[in-house]
């Protein structure tokens, strides 16, 4: 999968679908997300690469035919996305080397079923409350996110600031956003989740940990 990542990638996200399907979390996923995952039964792992223009989806599994909308690269790999994204992935795969090496060096070292690594200058295609993530991201040089199922979802984020001052701005912005969300929350479950958020800053690094569920997480980004 790594050999398909184009060199201009600004963000990577990984999902182990096999582990998700066997977790308690899977049974609580929103219907709209389940409808996306249903056609991907032959896909065991997914890697998403984004370069501020195109979204590339790289799927791993055993394929005789590709899933709907995907292109078969090998018997073990399929690609999805725009023609430009698929061309870039195919060209990179021929080189036999992974692109975006600075992102790969920062991916979590463990066996997390979900992780993401983003450059600080990336601009994610998000709207609504989710668009606030771009403002937070731009305080960092790199941001790493990892998640575990236990049986809810434990999320750990690490933001690398360019300086101690940018890390301080990130910390203050995160605390303000959590406080505002807590003050305006009317749902007890959401309030409990926000109360569980832990934010720490060590020099130029900011660490965030929270415990949540798929349903609550979806509601935060509407």
Morphology: globular
Low-pLDDT parts are: none
Q: Provide the residue-averaged pLDDT.
A: 88
Count of structural domains: 2
What is the first-to-last residue Cα distance?
31 Å
What Rg, in angstroms, do the CA atoms define? 18 Å
User: How many DSSP H or I helices?
Assistant: 8
Roughly what fraction of the amino acids lie in strands?
A: 25-35%
Order of helices and strands: EHHEEEEHHEHEEHHEEH
Strand order across the largest sheet: 4-5-3-2-1-6-7-8-10-9
Q: Fraction of residues in helices?
A: 25-40%
Which structural category fits the helices and strands? alpha+beta
Total strand segments: 10
Largest sheet: 10 strands, antiparallel
Explain what the structure shows.
The protein has 222 residues and is α+β, with helices and mostly antiparallel strands. The protein has eight helices and ten strands. It folds into two domains: 101 residues, no CATH class; 103 residues, no CATH class. Helices cover 32% and strands 30% of the residues. Helix 6 packs antiparallel against helix 7.
What is the structure about, briefly put?
With 222 residues, the chain is α+β, with helices and mostly antiparallel strands.
Keywords:
222 residues, alpha+beta, 8 helices, 30% strand
Secondary structure elements and their pairing?
Elements (H helix, E strand, L loop, with lengths): L10 E6 H5 L9 H7 L5 E8 L4 E7 L9 E2 L4 E5 L1 H13 L5 H4 L9 E6 L12 H6 L2 E10 L3 E9 L2 H21 L3 H8 L2 E5 L2 E8 L1 H7 L2
Antiparallel strand pairs: 1-2, 1-6, 2-3, 3-5, 4-5, 6-7, 7-8, 8-10, 9-10
Helix pairs in contact: 6-7
């Amino acid at each position: 999968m790594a050999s398909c990542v184009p060199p201009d990638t600004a963000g990577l996200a990984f999902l182990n679908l096999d582990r998700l399907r066997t977790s308690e979390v899977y049974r609580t996923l929103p219907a709209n997300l389940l409808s996306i995952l249903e056609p991907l039964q032959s896909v065991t792992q997914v890697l998403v690469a984004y370069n501020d223009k195109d979204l590339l989806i790289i799927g791993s599994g055993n394929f005789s035919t590709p899933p709907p909308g995907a292109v078969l690269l090998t018997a073990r790999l399929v690609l999805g996305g725009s023609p430009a994204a698929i061309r870039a992935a195919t060209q990179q795969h021929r080189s036999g080397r992974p692109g975006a090496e600075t992102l790969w060096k920062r991916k979590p070292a463990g066996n997390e079923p979900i992780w993401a690594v983003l450059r600080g200058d990336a601009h994610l295609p998000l709207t609504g409350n989710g668009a606030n993530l771009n403002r937070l991201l731009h305080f960092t040089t790199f941001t790493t996110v990892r998640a575990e199922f236990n049986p809810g979802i434990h999320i750990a984020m690490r933001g690398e600031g360019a300086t101690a001052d940018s890390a301080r701005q990130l910390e203050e912005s995160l605390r303000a956003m959590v406080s505002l969300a807590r003050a305006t929350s009317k749902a007890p479950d959401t309030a409990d989740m926000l109360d569980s958020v832990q934010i720490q800053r060590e020099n130029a690094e900011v660490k965030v940990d929270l415990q949540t569920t798929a349903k609550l997480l979806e509601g935060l980004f509407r």
